[in-house]
Design a protein that fits this description.
Layout lengths: L1 H30 L2 H11 L1 H22 L2 H26 L14 H6 L3 H25 L8 H17 L9 H8 L9 H8 L1 H7 L14 H19 L11 E7 L12 E2 L5 H9 L1 E6 L7 H10 L13 H4 L17 E4 L9 H8 L3 E3 L23 H13 L5 E6 L18 E2 L7 H25 L6 E7 L20 E8 L1 H5 L13 E2 L4 H8 L6 H12 L2 E4 L7 E4 L14 H18 L4 H4 L5
Parallel strand pairs: 1-6, 1-8, 3-10, 4-5, 4-6
Antiparallel strand pairs: 2-7, 3-9, 8-9, 11-12
């Protein structure tokens, strides 16, 4: 009897120590420094570490209560903890943000995720997890009969405790909830600006759990039907004024192509980075001769779908709540007929030479009303014809993608909308291009000189294929306008501090190009001069409509005023407001308090309309605001 009780005590102590150890490992996955981890959990914020240990212990109890096999539950506990920690670390490396519940959607594309991680690391993780499982199975077989088998009433209590604690995080955004009060007492921080800072303090597990419940957007205090009615009437008048000077009424006579060029950004603009030769001579010339500038991105090293969402909808992600991290995953498929530019066209197509499950694009495009989505898994008339990578490249080349776009453009006599998301320059950048003469140097490259050089070679191929693509469009006798933009910088400039270089590390390149037929037939513009130096993805719709001399709806009239008169905006990772505003004339940061009354009024209208369309009653839609 004493021997059995001793075994029970040993089991409990082991579970506590395992929870302590795995909690430490989770913090380490966030901070990547043993000394900083010790300093954080024992000095800076031991209360949050204690809560993490307690939650981990309750998760362990919950698993034990469910399976009633000690070593089996132990194996699962360690596997889940290690997978979480490794995933968190990898996301920080490549995206500069911690693991979030919305990232679970990527498990639908696990094969695609693994292809972005080195084979060596993948094998190390798999063998490490298998080792833990084998050891635990051996111990279960040898000592399983001597471990505690729990009766159902106790098991039910253990499972109930586990479920109650986790479900409590559903109310964490309510200031009066018990969960929020406990967290605040223990040192929980929740600044709207910097998720990484919060996670360094709170730990990755607490951050993950506090983002389970989604608030789309904070309701403006003056939101009501009367207010939206007045905004609709206001921009109906603005649209009338704009349309007096726009000769083209039917956008379906135009072909519009949005090209999100993966990670495209001029490395010569990155501070403390030197490339031995220009990787973008053709795009540099194209930009100088056509409507162009810089795009303020809300991501660094990742966040592609957020830039795509803003470009297609005209909505600003910085106006959403902190818990809405990825609208494609968390919002779009829950909406009814969500507003986006493809709604304006009778024919619309999306082309992405990868998996349709990434960022839930298959579901998103269906919700957007894009009827034809061509990706690596589609077949028949929706199959991609060109899927060859570059020599030495890992992903489908931009040349291949452009060839599929040209095929789509040639289909049909009328206009259409085509949304393109490329893959060629996606991480990792350890691919080997033959005869790569690019070299990278400077403090900004950190330990990634070879990766930066490989990236430079990759975008030089993009540069050449983009020139050929535009030349091909100029031979087609229909009006075509292309918006090409980079979604974010690659996350390889490890020598730079984001807090010091936030603006240049969030600026990519864009241009808008109308083909020869469009310009010759007064359905396109060569170069718009004013208000184009810097924009945001939500500014592309009004810019392309201006480029095509196309009449606008009241909603697009609002977007036109936002693009023309307010700063470029992004979700900041540094300042305390959570918003990054960049003056479109000076290129410098400006605070909201320094904006004019007119600018603040425009942003207020914009915020009210965005809330109405995404989280409110859609009063504006019922009034034909987008028509």
């Amino acid at each position: 009897m004493k021997k059995i009780k001793l075994m029970y005590i040993i089991q409990f102590v082991f579970m506590v120590l395992s929870s302590v150890l795995m909690s430490f490992y989770l913090y380490f996955s966030q901070l990547n420094s043993i000394s900083m981890t010790f300093a954080t959990i024992f000095h800076t914020n031991y209360g949050m570490y204690f809560l993490t240990v307690l939650i981990m212990l309750l998760i362990y109890f919950g698993l034990y209560g469910i399976f009633n096999r000690f070593f089996f539950s132990t194996a699962l506990f360690y596997v889940l903890s290690i997978v979480f920690a490794v995933a968190n670390r990898l996301k920080i490396i490549y995206r500069a943000e911690p693991l979030l519940p919305s990232d679970l959607a990527f498990f639908n594309s696990s094969r695609g995720l693994l292809s972005m991680i080195s084979l060596k690391l993948t094998l190390e993780i798999i063998f490490g997890l298998l080792f833990i499982v084998v050891i635990c199975l051996f111990l279960q077989k040898k000592f399983g009969k001597t471990t505690l088998f729990i009766k159902w009433p106790i098991r039910f209590i253990m499972i109930l405790l586990f479920g109650t604690v986790l479900s409590g995080f559903y109310t964490v955004n309510n200031q009066n909830s018990l969960t929020k009060k406990i967290l605040t007492k223990e040192g929980y921080t929740s600044s709207s600006a910097n998720l990484m800072w919060d996670t360094n303090n709170n730990g990755p597990l607490i951050t993950f759990l506090t983002n389970i419940h989604l608030d789309v957007m904070e309701k403006p205090s003056n939101y009501n039907q009367e207010k939206i009615d007045s905004i609709v009437k206001k921009y109906q008048g603005v649209a009338t004024d704009i349309n007096e000077n726009r000769p083209n009424a039917d956008v379906n006579k135009q072909t519009v192509i949005f090209v999100l060029s993966e990670s495209l950004s001029d490395p010569s603009r990155v501070p403390n980075v030197k490339i031995n030769q220009d990787p973008l001579p053709n795009i540099r010339r194209i930009k100088s001769e056509n409507t162009s500038g810089l795009m303020l991105s809300s991501g660094y090293g990742g966040g592609t779908a957020n830039m795509e969402y803003m470009a297609l909808t005209g909505m600003a992600v910085n106006q959403f709540s902190n818990t809405l991290r990825t609208p494609f995953v968390q919002l779009v498929t829950k909406q009814v007929n969500p507003e986006n530019i493809s709604n304006q066209f009778e024919i619309s197509t999306a082309i992405h030479p990868y998996l349709g499950t990434f960022y839930n694009r298959t579901g998103v495009y269906e919700s957007f009303g894009i009827k034809n989505f061509k990706n690596l898994k589609t077949k028949g008339h929706s199959a991609l014809k060109y899927t060859a990578p570059l020599n030495g490249g890992q992903w489908v080349s931009d040349k291949s993608v452009y060839n599929d776009v040209l095929l789509q453009v040639e289909q049909g006599k009328h206009g259409q909308f085509i949304n393109v998301v490329t893959m060629q320059n996606h991480m990792p950048y350890n691919n080997y291009y033959p005869d790569n003469t690019f070299t990278a140097s400077g403090k900004g490259v950190g330990q990634n000189a070879s990766e930066v050089a490989n990236y430079a070679k990759g975008i030089s191929y993009t540069d050449a294929s983009t020139k050929d693509f535009l030349n091909a469009l100029d031979t087609i006798n229909k009006p075509i306008t292309v918006v090409l933009y980079g979604d974010h910088l690659p996350g390889i400039y490890s020598g730079n501090e984001s807090a010091v270089h936030e603006i240049p590390e969030h600026e990519t390149d864009y241009f808008i190009y109308s083909n020869k037929y469009a310009i010759d037939h007064n359905m396109g513009t060569k170069k718009i001069i004013s208000d184009t130096h810097i924009t945001d993805p939500n500014g592309f719709i009004p810019l392309v409509y201006q480029q095509m001399k196309q009449k606008v709806s009241p909603f697009y009239a609002l977007l036109t005023e936002i693009q023309k008169d307010t700063p470029a905006m992004a979700k900041s990772t540094i300042n305390t407001s959570g918003n990054l505003y960049i003056d479109k004339h000076t290129g410098k940061q400006i605070s909201y308090n320094k904006l004019s009354y007119h600018q603040r009024q425009l942003l207020e209208d914009y915020r009210l309309v965005q809330y109405d369309m995404t989280a409110g009653k859609n009063y504006s839609g019922k009034l034909g605001f987008t028509k």
